[in-house]
Design a protein that fits this description.
Number of domains of chain B: 1
Shape of chain A: globular
Strand content of chain A: 15-25%
Strand order of the largest sheet of chain B: 1-2
Shape of chain B: elongated
Strand order of the largest sheet of chain A: 5-6-11-8-10-9
Distance between the termini of chain A: 65 Å
Largest sheet of chain B: 2 strands, antiparallel
Radius of gyration of chain A: 38 Å
Radius of gyration of chain B: 17 Å
Largest interface: A-B, 21 and 22 residues
Number of helices of chain B: 5
CATH topology of chain B: Arc Repressor Mutant, subunit A
CATH class of chain B: Mainly Alpha
Number of strands of chain A: 25
Helix content of chain A: 40-55%
CATH architecture of chain B: Orthogonal Bundle
Oligomer: heterodimer
Distance between the termini of chain B: 33 Å
Amino acid sequence: MLENNTPPRWAIRFFEWFCNDHLSEAVLGDLLHLYDRRINTVGKWKADILFVWNVVQFIQPFALRKKNMSNLNNLTMYKNYFKVALRNMSAQKMYTAIKIGGFALGLATCIVIALFIRHELSYDNHYKNVNDIYRVYNEQTAPEAGKWTAFPAPFVPLLKSSFPEVELAARLIPYSWFNAGTNLVRKDDQVENTYEEGFAYADPELLEILEIPMVYGNRSSALSQPSTIVISKKKADKYFPGEDPTGKIIVLNDDKKISLTIGGVMEDFKPTSHLQFDFFITLSGKEFWQGEQTSWCCWNYNPYIKLRAGTDPVEFEKKMLSLKKVYIEYLIKEKNQSVDDVRKYYGFRLQPVKDVHLYSDGIGDIIPHGDIRYIWMFGGIAIFILALACINFVNLSTAKSANRAKEVGLRKVVGSHRSSLVNQFLSESILYSIVSFLLALGILSIGLPYFNQLAGKVIDVPWKEWWFLPGVIGASIIVGLVAGLYPSFYLSAFKPIDVLKGSVARGMKNSRLRSVMVVFQFTTSIVLIIGTFVIYQQMNYILTKKIGYDKEQVIMVQGVNTLGDQQRTFKDELLRLASVQNVTLTQYFPVAGTKRDMNQFWRDGKSQEEKSNGAQVWYVDEDYINTMGMKLVAGRNFQKDLASDSSAIIINQSMVKVFGFKQPLGERIMNWRTWTVIGVVEDFHFENMKDKIEPLCFVRGGWGNIAAIKLKTHKMEDAIQSITEVWKKFLPHQTIRYTFLDESYARMYDDVRRTGNIFASFAILAIIVACLGLFALSAFMVEQRNKEISIRLVLGASLQNIFRLLTDQFIKLVLISFLLSIPLAWYVMQRWLEDYEYKIEIGWQVFVVAGIVSVLIALLTVSYQSIRAALANPANNLRSE
Amino acid sequence: MKGTSLGEFEELVLLSVGILFDDAYGLAIVDELQNKTGRNIMISSVHKALVRLQEKGYLKSRMGGATTIRGGRDKRLYTLTPAGVSVLREMKELRNQMWKEVPKIVWEVK
């Protein structure tokens, strides 16, 4: 038979592989015979195909190789693997501790982040009809793009009557507006007032839309009567412990006119709800001023709707646009205003309620939100830290391979297959991983409260959820497999003959892969360090930037409105105190949580020809500018007894800019009336630094709920003492409540501080994990070169020489990581800073400092082992030979 | 009849082994069956039947008769066991018996 007249070799091999010994030879002989016959009749190509087809036909149970029945031995072998693993662990305590400790730390971090992400994703998912609940927002695409949630009062009733698809619709006022926001509360039969937050106005149907469970009262009727209020269980327990408060009356701000009947008690809002309120005041029968409920003038209401099941939201969004004509009619008829932009660029949009928490970037509402980008970022960090921990595991396992090489060799000699060695090392790494996971759960239960504090969240370990423990066990097995994959194939590949001859270089120093992994670890760590520095710098910049006013030593006494007519006298009394420099009464402050009032302004008499400019109008008294330490760049302040100042207006520099005034003083502008500009105040930050400073103006007021007091002295406590005494004279039944302006200011940037702290903790964790690995590697290096070092020492090497010898390599790796991390960190942090209108430049100093810090840390980590080696008595190491 | 049940294909294979006496191996049986029946016979089903028949004790086998054309591989040569012979005989008698009981009139129908 000629060589080229044989069927494909792989087919023969394949057949011999699967076919049992009883048939293999005889059948193959038959098949070859048949092939030989065919090759003469149908040609080689077809014969080949038929041969393969015949082989395939034999893949049947009768022809297959029977499984080896030697499986009985498995359990014993696993017992042996387990024993050997435990012995190895206890023989090398330091490496084991580092392997497990580093792993556990990484895993704990990962679990915390996973829980955090789960928490963020669970927002507003608890409604039964979650897919039918939406909020409506406005979108303007040009000329000034913007999205916001407030609508005029008649919008929601119109929406409901126009479209049968809307099953329920309700309005909500979550802003500080009339009695929404904060109030003083008392029961109608008591005199003592208590300060409470979390008030909102709501339509009766809101309770149904948000499926709020009730403790007392009926959800559908709790708010249907005018002047009713629904309070949370928490507050009901506080004011009416152990009783059903339905029908009881509470009084707001000590004002008998605002007596509200409790219509029901609702369960507290879930922590994973974007709305968090304790008091819902009904909007039913409410009209804030004459004609307010029917006018499209004033935008204060956030709409929430529930669509009938099966309604297509995209279609409905299009249909909703037909309501624009009502708004346009209003603009033409009442305002005589150009409507081209509204026609072209303005529209209503729907947002599913479950998207509100994470996908509201750019939508103006005052509700605190999460951000989907942070979810991605933290998820990325979690994966990287897990990778760092796995790398430690891989690096140490392969580095210490010399210790296992003999074992592998011997096992092979006595007949172990490579597959069972792989099995052994995989089960060993799973064992490590399970131990680490147990430790990680311990770290988790200790560390989670700290994380909650750091992130301002309420996250529990879901021990009791059915999926949690199986999930953790599953994850530990998977992680163990992944981390053990490379080491187990690496270790099981040793050739027994080399190992037993002793020619496997002990430890294979400078494995390139190991270096790459160290570089990866340090690159990640350095990026996190640089990120932390940048965030803290930005934070520092915000807190110390010249913000256009002086926030130090200003006390804000809250609830002054309850003084009624005596506000003025109260102010005069305060001014008489020695420690007080200045006092102002108003509702408007450049910190979050105080009142805002957006108006549209035109140049006088030009409301029909020109576009309007939006600006804040703040009602302040003549002491405001001095108390707040603001600077007038032109003109004059209000004067106390000058009657003509009631139509005077002081504008800020950005308002001068948007109007393009060359000589602002004396210019006349109008909103609902006409004002004359008497002064220009320097721009100051009154909103978050993420946004530009917008136009703003002061007009004369002289009343308010807050008295801001500028102190002369540094003796805060004495000053507060004397202020409290004055307060007691006026309102003996009400405790004084005050805040500090600088603290309120800092609170506006809580989220930046939080991000900074979280970043810092992750950076520290990453560095710890990376350093643990580096420490173990350096210990290993020293161990390897023990004899070499000893001989060098004997020949007269100095401590310095030895130190250099041992650390050079590591420092080189850290420097490479540093170079790699610079562009990465720069890019990421530049993206983060894009959010801020006012921000720092990322300077070279950050990188230099981060570089020095990381090199120092790495040096410290490796130097312990190096110095110890250099100081050891060489005789001890050399004696044995 | 239990224990001695034989499928039609198995019976044919068993008979072929008898015909080919002393040179009954896989491919030869395939050829024999193809000649006699004119059907296309799959080599894998023949081997499958042979394995089954040996398990049932109707056949025994030995290795031998390698040729170059078979790549130097031995044949598995099958021979009938006494049990195999008797099962064939039983089958034949059963048929004869049944043939006799069919009334003549049946055969006259065209």
